[in-house]
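Hello again, I could really use a second opinion on something today. I've dropped the whole record in just underneath, so have a look.
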Amino acid sequence: MGDTLKVTDQYLDETVLPEVTALKQSMIGTNAKDPDGKVVVNHVNDFAGGAGNGLPSDGGNGYTVLMAGNFTEGSTVSGNFKSFAGSIQGQFKAISGAVDKIVLGIVNAKRTFDNAEDDALTSAQMFTILSGSPPTGINPPNPPKP
């Protein structure tokens, strides 16, 4: 048998949610604990934008155009690199969107864990329901018909 992972709301709060949030921040270049990731994302954004004359952007993040030379093939390489950077930028956004959905799923799972104890039936209440008579002290949503 394999190992078992017990997922609790505490595990979601203290382990999963911070890690997933950090991943999303890295994908958009805002993770303070990932300065290299921020530099990479900013470089990709600069090259994808291709603004200016190719010199470092105002933020000093790097060049904005691949300086491949002032001839046809160089211009082609520069244009292809800009398209490539745009594709990477698009993938960063797509992954970031997927991570948003993961975070929403984690929040919903946590909410379910938080509410589960309040909504849980005792074994005696479940036995009463299964035997055909409504339990005392709770109002099940669809009690069985006797």
